[in-house]
């Protein structure tokens, strides 16, 4: 699978993780070319069996994605288009692809991400920010518009109505520590721990069977989208699918044979905030490939 044709970011594949570095000087403005490359990347990664996790970062330490290029908005028609009946041919369809695909998406934000850039990563499975430097915002209201890439829909579903109103109507910046407190991101981590944690997490997730990851993600999404009883029934069904996988049987047997279900082994703790040892399932992983 080739990743050499992208113009606005570089892709490196390592241990089941695609590291995608956004690089669109001078400050990573989001534009239609970048959006189309994100769409192409999603389709490429979905078809790449060697990738289970995607980690997005930026070549610019100060800007992850500044926002959508306003010069592309000011020339839009003076009359609003009719309301669509589907997401086809919209930016929402691209963002939804990342949200629902069986691969896991992670944003590692070290600088500023605002507007459409922030909306793009809101569709991801996880967002981590650098403490003391990362900034998150939906500033659209300042120029008289609203977030158009899902911000007014995804943010209240993550943080509730009142905090969403603060983010959208205030239009101001939220540093990583407040974004974490509000639930806009997973965690705010110090500079010396951010890359370490994100990479450890990505490699750990990528070490799990692809089918198991897809089932787990599907079940979590069901918990968000379905009524509670329907979601619980869906989880029960998906659990049955996961436990029946040959790869799951092999891992459970390996766990038992290694005395993993013992007081001594169960007492071990791993926060992923330190250098990691070799994946104990590495041998099985090679067989699964």
TrEMBL record:
Matching CDD domains: crotonase-like (cd06558)
Gene3D superfamilies hit by this protein: 2-enoyl-CoA Hydratase, Chain A, domain 1 (3.90.226.10)
One of the protein's GO biological processes: fatty acid beta-oxidation
InterPro entries associated with the record: ClpP/crotonase-like_dom_sf, Enoyl-CoA_hydra/iso
Entry-linked Pfam families: ECH_1
A GO molecular-function descriptor: catalytic activity
Stated name of the protein: Enoyl-CoA hydratase/isomerase
Annotated organism of origin: marine sediment metagenome
């Amino acid at each position: 699978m080739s990743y050499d044709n992208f113009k606005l970011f570089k892709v490196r594949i390592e241990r089941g993780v695609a590291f995608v570095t956004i690089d669109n000087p001078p400050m990573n403005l989001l534009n239609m070319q970048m959006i189309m490359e994100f769409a192409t990347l999603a389709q490429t990664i979905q078809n790449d069996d060697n990738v289970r996790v995607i980690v997005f970062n930026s070549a610019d330490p100060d800007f992850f994605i500044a926002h959508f290029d306003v010069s592309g908005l000011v020339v839009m028609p003076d009359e609003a288009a009719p309301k669509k009946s589907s997401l086809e041919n919209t930016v929402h369809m691209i963002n939804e692809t990342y949200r629902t695909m069986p691969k896991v998406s992670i944003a590692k934000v070290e600088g500023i991400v605002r507007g459409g850039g922030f909306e793009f990563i809101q569709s991801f499975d996880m967002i981590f920010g650098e403490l003391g430097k990362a900034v998150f915002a939906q500033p659209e209201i300042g120029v008289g518009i609203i977030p158009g890439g899902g911000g007014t829909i995804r943010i209240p579903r993550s943080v509730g109505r009142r905090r969403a109103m603060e983010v959208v109507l205030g239009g101001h910046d939220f540093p990583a520590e407040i974004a974490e407190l509000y639930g806009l991101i997973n965690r705010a981590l110090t500079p010396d721990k951010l890359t370490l944690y994100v990479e450890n997490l990505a490699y750990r997730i990528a070490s799990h069977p692809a089918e198991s990851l897809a089932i787990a993600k599907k079940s979590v999404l069901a918990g968000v989208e379905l009524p509670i009883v329907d979601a619980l029934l869906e989880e029960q069904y998906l659990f049955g699918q996961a436990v029946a996988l040959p790869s799951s049987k092999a891992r459970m047997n390996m766990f038992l044979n290694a005395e993993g279900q013992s007081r001594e082994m169960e007492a071990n703790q791993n926060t992923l905030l330190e250098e990691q040892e070799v994946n104990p399932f590495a041998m099985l992983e090679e067989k699964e490939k």
